[in-house]
Amino acid sequence: MIRFEDVSVTYDGSDEPTVQGVDFEVPEGELVLLAGPSGVGKSTVLGAVGGLVPHFTGGTLRGRVTVAGRDTRTHKPRELADVVGTVGQDPLSHFVTDTVEDELAYGMESLGLAPDVMRRRVEETLDLLGLAGLRDRPIATLSGGQQQRVAIGSVLTPHPSVLVLDEPTSALDPAAAEEVLAVLQRLVHDLGTTVLMAEHRLERVIQYADQVVLLPAPGAAPVLGPPAEVMAVSPVYPPVVALGRLAAWTPLPLTVRDARRKAGDLKRELHNAAPEGRGELRDKPPTSRTRKRSTPPTPLGEVRALSVTRGRVQALSHIDLTLTPGETIALMGRNGAGKSTLLNALVGLVEPSSGTVRLGEATPHRTAPKDLVRKVGLVPQEPRDLLYADTVAAECAAADRDAGAAPGTCRALVSELLPDVTDGTHPRDLSEGQRLALALAVVLTARPPLLLLDEPTRGLDYAAKARLVTVLRALAADGHAIVLATHDVELAAELAHRVVLLAEGEVIADGPTADIVVSSPSFAPQVTKILAPQRWLTVTEVRAALHPEAG
Q1: Which stretches of sequence are listed as region Disordered (predicted)?
Q2: Domains of the chain from N-terminus onward
Q3: C-alpha–C-alpha distance, residues 93 and 151, integer Å
């Protein structure tokens, strides 16, 4: 169905090809996962399937890509639209209408389908993706995850024979991600749809893949094979595989269920390594060690009885939250639960309908941006909102000036997060994950006491995520308060001291990470599910318990 024949792509102004030696085939009716570290060219490979590369992006494509017998060099994207449906990393770039229902119908209108067919398919897609309650909503009012589901639905309604998806679950909560992946599996198994998908959160998708195409490094030839075989040699792999490698399980398990079947000996060994067999829980934030003193640490921020109404939607209702120096808080919950709205209220982008938000003596929505930047920094879901310059070097120089920091401060942070990115690179030429890391470096240059991050691991591979965790832990140790709005349960398990769970704009749980996630089927990390009832959260904790001398 999809055939790559010795394909290389070189973009204008680049001396080296972004991808080269790409040679593989995706059979009809299979789900093939494209995996690899950030920046190796996965989005370029996906773009070549629908003709976006090179007809839209520019550059030179050598070799040949064929889809259902059509050569993408001679067929432009509009000539492939009836065969290929594509959803990129940024759903906003796909939308051409204002409401959910209109967007689902638009692609079929372009293909001239009959009105009764269009109506039936819209209803089917609304049900498939859990969007029926949003059908009349303006797309601009939806959460990022809801927008991603609409983008996926908009390419499903024309019933393409090939679906190309770039990080389709990156903005989805765990339950919504499972629903979308179940839909994709149904399309593959029942309708024979061919799916080529890139995804960094392998723990969500690896078990659904028929084959994995691994791009191991920039410019390296891909490795193709069954998921278990590829994961055995891959530089990127999910926690279940990491635990399997640590325990030397053969063959490597790809699912929690398979890992649990192998985990008996490991659980017995860990039971002896940890008091009461509960697992070693992470240290409390440094400030908690000072609570015996007569004066508790002064909070960096306080939210009291906060409510926010946006249009007719009650986005937040009676939120109370204290932000303590040195503490990392993960805001979690379904798409649309109010996580981003709470972050926006903390940074002054949203005015409370009632209640108060205070950062020291400052009220965020009444404080001038030049003063507020010294108190709080926000890395938004869409990092391009913070990036305006033509090169990484210019972006960093501007960040240094705006923050009053020493020249080179921002660039040093970029080097720590993105070791392979050069000064002359244009931010638009970075991958989604690389742009996010650059935006984080820009915000961190001012070293705000309160750091807010909205879905900070979108587009990040496991190595990049580990570097991010290292940076954020160091900031927390220095007394910064960090609030993450995230659907990444593995990040929360690795980093957060505390989890605040939101639903319908209200706090439904607030406590230590282990207490919240261990009891939640949706928000428990893979290691917790595998080793239950012991209370382990991460492979890092397990490794430290088994090999304390290595720590």
Answers
A1: 268-301
A2: 2-236 (3.40.50.300), 286-550 (3.40.50.300)
A3: 9
Task: Convert the pLDDT of each residue in 227-236 to its tens digit.
Answer: 999 999 999 9
Q: Calculate ∠ Cα 169-170-175, nearest 5°.
A: 50
C-alpha–C-alpha distance, residues 165 and 154, integer Å: 12
Predicted TM-score (pTM) of the model is 0.85
Write the single-letter amino acid at 68: A
DSSP-derived 3-state class of residue 9:
strand
At 355, the amino acid letter reads: G
Query: CA 235 to CA 36: how far, in whole Å?
Result: 7
- Weakly modelled stretches of the chain, pLDDT under 70: 274-295, 550-551
Task: Report the helix count and the strand count for the chain, using DSSP H and E.
Answer: 22, 19
Residue 224 to residue 25: CA distance in whole angstroms: 9
Model confidence pLDDT, tens digit, residues 385-404: 888 899 999 999 999 998 88
User: Which amino acid is present at 166?
Assistant: D
**Cβ contacts of residue 258 below 8 Å, gap of 6+?**
none
CA dist., res. 260 & res. 254, Å (int): 11
In this structure, are residues 515 and 253 in contact, taking their beta carbons and an 8 Å threshold?
Answer: no
Place of tokens 């244009």: 426
Cα–Cα dist 487/145, whole Å: 10
For residue 386, with 0-12 CB atoms within 10 Å meaning exposed, 13-18 middle and 19 or more buried, which class applies? buried
* Three-state secondary-structure class, residue 379: strand
